[in-house]
Amino acid sequence: MPASDEAYEAYRRPPTRLPDENLGWNTYGVGVEAMGRDGAPEHIDVTHPGPDQLLVRVDAVGLCYSDVKLIRQGGNHPKLYGRDLSEEPTRLGHEATVTVVEVGEDLADRYQPGQRLAIQPDIYVGGRSTAYGYTIPGGLIQFHLIGPEVLDADDGAYVIPVDDSIGYAAAALSEPWACVEAAYTQRRRLEPLEGGRMWIVGQPGDENEYRFSRYLDRPALIVLTDAPEAIAAQARRTGAEVIHRDGLDPSQYRALSDELTGGDGFDDIVLLGPRRAEQVDKTAALIAFRGTLNLVGDRPLDGLVAVDLGRIHYHYTAYYGNPGPDVAASYGEERNRCELRPGGVALFVGAAGPMGQMHIQRALELPDGPSTIIASDVDPTRLAVLEAKLGPLAERRERRLAIVDPSADPEALAAIVEKETAGRGADDVIVTVPVGETMSDSAQLMAPDGMLVLFAGAPVGTVGPLDLSAVYLQNAQYTGTSGSRISDQQLVIDKAVAGLLSPERSLAAVGGIEAGRDGVQAMLEGRFAGKIVIFPQLKGLPLMGLEELAERYPAIGRHLGDGWSPEAERELIETFWKPA
Question: In what order do the strands lie in the sheet with 372-376?
């Protein structure tokens, strides 16, 4: 074991010439056996960068369950658009941090050798997803070129400078952490769309005096179905195109949408005085992508509403409302929260998986986070890891961490929620399990004015019952997010620099470049209760959980404490890195 930091300091200085060997894990089809050649990484040629390119050294890559989806689907993955991987392979590794080795002449004013960058993989070109690690080959390689496909896309450069105070694993894990942060950053559209299509549905015989105090001048088209005359008069004064379609049965709503929106759905729907869950079912099905349903009424519905849970997550469909009579009171930030309730009770379902643990860690590290956290999972082994890893953090933060495994007793979760909330229900329910039934069941454990966060993505078309009466009567929130933005990842890095977040705490296993395929296989098997990080520059490092790593390499283990640390990473590099 090296006794000094000479190797680590040498590592931090990027190489001054192209590498003689460049190992990588290209993916040629379906299944882990399609990674690399004959079960091993292959040499992939690398050249000096062109004028608009960077040659980068990949320092760390986090593996994600999304990688498993690509392995299972191959070229049929949505972000590969039917690509024949046998002819045009891709490469996994969208959670990557890199060091600049060489800079093309056209980029010399923006980048310099030795600069560290984190890659934001959710790249769009012309509005089309061209994600790094999917459409663009990703970071399971030692060196590669990045150019305009990453540095000059729709949002400019999809890279973020990384401060030297942050470890390589922490920088790589800033991407999944950005997805966690995004779950609590407003993604729903909270006001009617400028120039959009609004549909206002009333109830025959409803004598409530509804009004819009603002926002009705935004739509270009306003469709009225049994709307009160006061609302209709307001609509006519806006100058928008106004169409009346009265006397419709809910079974006719779809035809109306097809006629007036070409089947895209209405950008904003307002449902006045709702009474029947069936009517809300049919109406909600016609919300456009990133559209809204505003429920305004003072009486509960006659039952739960069948809601497309996948659309809340992937399409950002928004459900909000108020008791009336001002329709506009439903809109805006003030009534629609997206952050965990300070001092509240938060329930995390699927808590012991890698992403669930990250959500709990974030809640514990929030300065004004929940006072009580309930962690539910059906895997007792992973729950034990969660308790060992995050229990000490909860104690230091003076937060209560209650852990429950409902697999043996289906009533155990409801019982502990009732006990911890005095029967009120959890202020926030975060679901990291992509199962519609679990999502709907979890919603029943929420307080009347609580928030449900659908972090895991059940497919669009996954329908489950939700209490939408609570939305307009109690201000309940139903939210969901998919992916992250550059700003989310920048926030994670800023928090890490400020000491407000430790992204590396979620790491559970490490490996060198030869362990890339083993890491993906381990995710398929659910072998580790946390994130797997591959260090492509390290050779001879097999995939190991932190416990095994500590046993085999005590000098590294003494720096682990509650989990991965910058000191452990420094010792790892000292042990396994060899200069070219």
Answer: 400-404, 372-376, 345-349, 426-431, 446-454, 477-480
The arithmetic mean of pLDDT across residues 252-260, rounded, is: 97
Q: Render pLDDT for 135-191 as a digit per residue (tens, 0 to 9).
A: 999 999 999 999 999 999 999 999 999 999 999 999 999 999 999 999 999 999 999
Q: What is the CATH number of the domain that holds 538?
A: 3.90.180.10
Q: 451 and 501 share a domain?
A: no
Which pLDDT band holds residue 395 (cuts at 50, 70, 90)? very high
On whether residue 423 sits in a domain, the answer given is yes
Number of domains in the chain: 3
Neighbours of 96 (CB within 10 A): 28
Q: What's the chain's Rg over C-alpha atoms?
A: 26
Separation CA 389–CA 394 (nearest Å): 10
Place of tokens 């004598």: 207
Q: Pick the closest to residue 546 from 569, 526, 523 (CA basis).
A: 569
Higher model confidence: residue 133 or residue 13? 133
Q: What is the pLDDT of residue 4?
A: 55
472 assigned to some structural domain: no
More confident residue, 460 or 327: 327
Answer yes or no: is 566 within a domain.
yes
Residue predicted with more confidence, 213 or 5: 213
In b/e form, how buried is each residue of 160-192, taking b as 16+ CB within 10 angstroms?
bebeeebbbbbbbbbbbbbbbbbbbebbbbbeb
Look up the CATH number of the domain holding residue 303. Answer: 3.40.50.720
Share of the chain above pLDDT 90, in %: 89
- Give the DSSP letter string of 140-186: SBSEEEE-HHHHSBTTB--EEE--TTS-HHHHHTHHHHHHHHHTTS-
pLDDT at 20: 86
d(CA 232, CA 246): 12
Write down the pTM of the prediction: 0.89
Say which amino acid occupies 227: A
% pLDDT > 70, the chain: 99
* Tokens read off for 532: 């797997």
Average pLDDT score over the chain: 95
Tokens of 503: 């992204």
Give yes or no: residues 178 and 202 share one domain: no
C-beta separation of 221 from 198 below 8 A: yes
- Please state the separation of Cα 492 from the chain's center in Å: 13
Which residue range is the domain that position 315 belongs to?
197-330
Residue 561 CB neighbour total at 10 angstroms? 12
